[in-house]
Amino acid sequence: MTSRRRAAVLTTLGLLVAAGLVFYLSGFPGERSDSGSLPPASRVQRFEREPTVSLFVKETGERKELPIEEYVAGVVAGEMWENWPERAYAAQAILARTFTLEFMARGGTRSLHGTDLSTDPEEAQAYNPSKISDAIRRAVDATRGQVLTYDGRYVRAWFHAYSGGQTTTPREGLGLQEVDEPYLRPVKLPDNPLVPDQFKSWRVELTEPELRQALASAGVDVGTIQQVRVAARGPTQRITEVEVIGESGRRTLTGNQFRLAVGADRMRSTLASTFEFGGRRLVVAGTGSGHGVGLSQWDALLMARQGRTPQAIVQTFYPGTRIEKLW
Question: Where is the Sporulation stage II protein D amidase enhancer LytB N-terminal domain (predicted)?
Answer without folding.
Answer: 60-150
